[in-house]
Amino acid sequence: MSKDSVKLLNFWPSMFGLRVHYALDLKGVSYDYQEENLFNKSKELLEANPIYTKIPVLIHNGKPICESLVIVDYIDSVWPGSHKLLPEDPYEKAVARFWADFGDRKLYDAGSRLIRAMGEEHKKAGEDFKWALMKIDEALGTIAPGKPFFGGDAMNFADVALAPFICWFKGYQKVGGFVLPGPEEWPNLYKWVDAVNSVDAIKISTPSDDKVTESVERYRKHFTGAA
């Protein structure tokens, strides 16, 4: 049986690309990595994702799979192993998908506005970002009380989808001019952050929050001219 050919096209700080890294590393899948320049995208990326022309793209045995949550689902199906990311129970699966989608709709949206917006819209973005994290704290206490992850004792689909935002927290606070509440107010969130950061498979690809913060500050200056 021939060895699978697995390649990830990505841009290093992307939380969407980190989802794919995390899923592959949690599964122990070997893969090649190609760093992309978003201002000068490779021919391979443009051909692999002609609809959106965006990272990440996973190329498995010559076939491209696009969009981060679609890719994570694909990885979980192709390499189920002993660590399933999507629960078998239909309701638990729906809950995991809901919170993964919440990351895109609420965390990413607010974070993007923190980088791009000015004035009152910028201030509101900070409030929206904190609201989203508060809801994640509440959800962790309800879905998996006493456990470190949405998946209980191990990371599941929702954890993989939301965990990449952690290394962006410092940068969002820096450009947003706010400080997040501490563990006294959000105990479940901070327990989850500590648990995620302690997983060896997560450490492999996670960039330092200082490095991400430098990028966030550059992005804000690029889009707004503001320091």
Question: Can you tell me about this structure?
Answer:
This protein has 227 residues and is of the alpha+beta class. The chain folds into two domains: 73 residues, Glutaredoxin, CATH 3.40.30; 135 residues, Glutathione S-transferase Yfyf (Class Pi), Chain A, domain 2. The protein has ten helices and four strands. Strands 2-1-3-4 form a four-stranded mixed β-sheet, covered by helices on one side. Helix 1 packs parallel to helix 3, helix 4 runs antiparallel to helix 5 and helix 7 runs parallel beside helix 10. The longest helix is centred in the middle third of the chain and has 27 residues. The radius of gyration is 18 Å and the shape is globular. The termini are far apart. The model has no long low-confidence stretch (mean pLDDT 96).
Layout of strands and helices, then pairs:
Blueprint: E1 6-10, H1 15-27, E2 32-35, H2 43-48, E3 57-60, E4 63-66, H3 68-78, H4 90-116, H5 119-143, H6 157-162, H7 169-176, H8 187-197, H9 200-203, H10 209-224
Parallel strand pairs: 1-2
Antiparallel strand pairs: 1-3, 3-4
GO molecular function, one term: glutathione transferase activity
Domain GST C-terminal: 89-223
Domain GST N-terminal: 4-83
